[in-house]
Amino acid sequence: MSVGMAAPRSAYACDPDRSRGRLFDEPPSKTRSPFRRDCDRVIHSTAFRRLKYKTQVFVFHEGDHYRTRLTHSLEVAQIARALARQLGLDEDLTETLALAHDLGHPPFGHAGERALDACLRAHGGFDHNAQTLRVVTSLEHRYPEFDGLNLTWESLEGIVKHNGPLTARSGAAFGRYRERGIPCGISDYVGIYDLELWSFASLEAQVAAIADDIAYDAHDIDDGLRAGLFGVDDLKVMPLTAEIIAEIAGDYPNLDDDRRGAELVRELISYLIGGVVSETRRRLDIAQPRSVEDVRNQGEMLIAFSAPVAQAEAEIKSFLHHRMYRHPRVMRVMGEAETILFDLFARYQKTPGDLPPEWLPPGGQDAETETDRARRIGNFIAGMTDRFALTEHQRLFDSTPDLR
Q1: Is 11 part of any domain?
Q2: Most exposed of 209, 232, 245, 404 (fewest Cβ within 10 Å)?
Q3: How confident is the model over 329-372, as pLDDT tens digits?
Q4: Long-range CB contacts (< 8 A, 24+ apart) of 289-296?
Q5: How many domains does the chain contain in total?
Q6: pTM for the whole structure
């Protein structure tokens, strides 16, 4: 099959007509499938709009051309839909999960997550996947009959399990959650609506997860080049990018560096997408899943890079880690950003009246536990944009870092 042709719907794709439904029953839409409806709800949510001013790597005011969480999410969705189309999966569910995957990220990227996790360490910690689940199940207040977005079971499953199962069938946490257990935002919710944490998620969710990796790799290279943290020729230290750069030089010997970088990013995305499609088809040929339940009961992810492509992708991540994420300029700004969130959390704990009225407990301060109060403050800060966090800090403190 040509890479440009869409595959027919696969037997192992999620079928919107056979969705497990929603926690709160609603009449079906006359014009949209359940998964299309989920996607529209994510797009129209307040949390999605706030992604416009949340850091990907560079704080929003460092430049208009750098990625934000919003532009990153759109790029993930574009890659994810391309993969879903090739593999005969449901594109609407895939897009839903791609657009929703970062809704729970706090301001200032991973620095913000580290700061909130430290602030909430005695109260269950902070996990952005768990926070995304909170956003779509309770923190969005747009509907008269329920909190959250009341997404389908399949969308909630994909949000929580897109990177694989969280527990064994016994319920014991493993992987990244082995030491600290399942985050309370997830463990509390599955007591109400079981998302079967022991099973793999749908192929649509797995596609969204790997599309996130592809977007990170390619577009962080693009942003790093634009920021001057490294040059195109610095990327020759990796075999894959060196080969692409050599091919570009052969085809366009007089190309300027800006266009060389853009062409490199395009070719890299195409290479990684092709690698996913070929390896996934190989795994599907072996596994022969006949339904989405067969996918959930597989002992491994079916959407994956081949070993050589996975090695090349890991080399890119390592390069970006050392040359971009750990760059002194980025580290300095992110360290100052952590300080801002530490200051805000401590201030709200000490002076609850500094919170907006809608974020105060209905029954007063005495009506909640210390953990309830900490989690409420954490939810408020996690929903902030970079610029709102800076504005709040300027309002409450005499001196605020410039983050430049």
Answers
A1: no
A2: 404
A3: 888 988 999 999 999 999 999 999 999 999 998 877 677 899 99
A4: 289/11, 289/12, 290/11, 290/12, 291/11, 291/12, 292/12, 292/13, 292/14, 292/15, 292/202, 292/203, 294/12, 295/12, 295/200, 295/202, 295/203, 296/196, 296/199, 296/200, 296/201, 296/202
A5: 1
A6: 0.94
